Amino acid sequence: MDSVRSPDRPPSPPGGLSANSATARYGQPPGPGPATGYGLPPVVATPAYRPPVVPPPAATVRRVRPTPPASPPIPVKILVAGGFGVGKTTTVGAISEIAPLTTEAEMTSAGIGVDDPGVRSAKTTTTVAMDFGCVTIDRSLKLYLFGTPGQARFGFMWDDLARGALGALVVVDSARLDDCYPAIDFFERAGLPFVVGVNAFDGRLAHDLGAIRWALAIGEHVPLVRFDARDRLSVRDALLVVLDRALDRATRDRGA
């Protein structure tokens, strides 16, 4: 049997569409096609939403300024002066951050009656030229220490050593105050700021500081300190007083 037709349905005209065909009923030609449902338009797939791609910002280049090289510390020349055998070489050696340069020579019998270190001293050598050492105070300041010879016959060197110095530490033995008079007179005439440091031999003084100031006839504007030439911190404190006095003089001179 090719087809079954209802007896009540009129026959299709020749060449026409069958009344019961899919084309007549749904308006679509027969044949395979996507299943779209009964009379519904074909479903068109909508692409999934994708946010727009925003390119990442360009990497920020941080420019680092090169650190300028640290400037070298300012050199400051300080003299360590005083009489014979008062502890000048010991003072320079106690504070110097380098091996101090010394010009020590053995004392001989020719110096008997000329170089008198005192009855308490076991000194067997003497400075015949100068002592040299240095110490860094901070990143901006460095002290260069020049120890002068104590004997009067080397006095001609003092003018050369004092050239360019900003201050001086006059070391004094309280038991032999007369040995320091030439040093104090020299710096007073030169107009160089100085500090009198009384070296405490054996941890004690022969006189108190008030009596020493009176005996030396120095004014109140001249600092008078007690220190131990063997102790690094004690020497440091005495040198800081010298530095402070030198800076004060420089400030007053600039203001004038």
From TrEMBL:
CDD domains: Ras_like_GTPase (cd00882)
Residues passing through the membrane, by range: none
One function term, GO molecular function aspect: hydrolase activity
Keyword Nucleotide-binding: yes
Region (Disordered): 1-40
Record flagged with keyword Protein biosynthesis: no
SUPFAM superfamilies xrefs: P-loop containing nucleoside triphosphate hydrolases (SSF52540)
Entries under InterPro entries matching the protein: Gliding_Motility_GTPase, Gpn, P-loop_NTPase
Cited Pfam families: ATP_bind_1
UniProtKB keywords: GTP-binding, Hydrolase, Nucleotide-binding
Family the entry assigns: Belongs to the GPN-loop GTPase family.
Protein name: Signal recognition particle receptor subunit beta, a GTPase
Species this protein is from: Micromonospora mirobrigensis
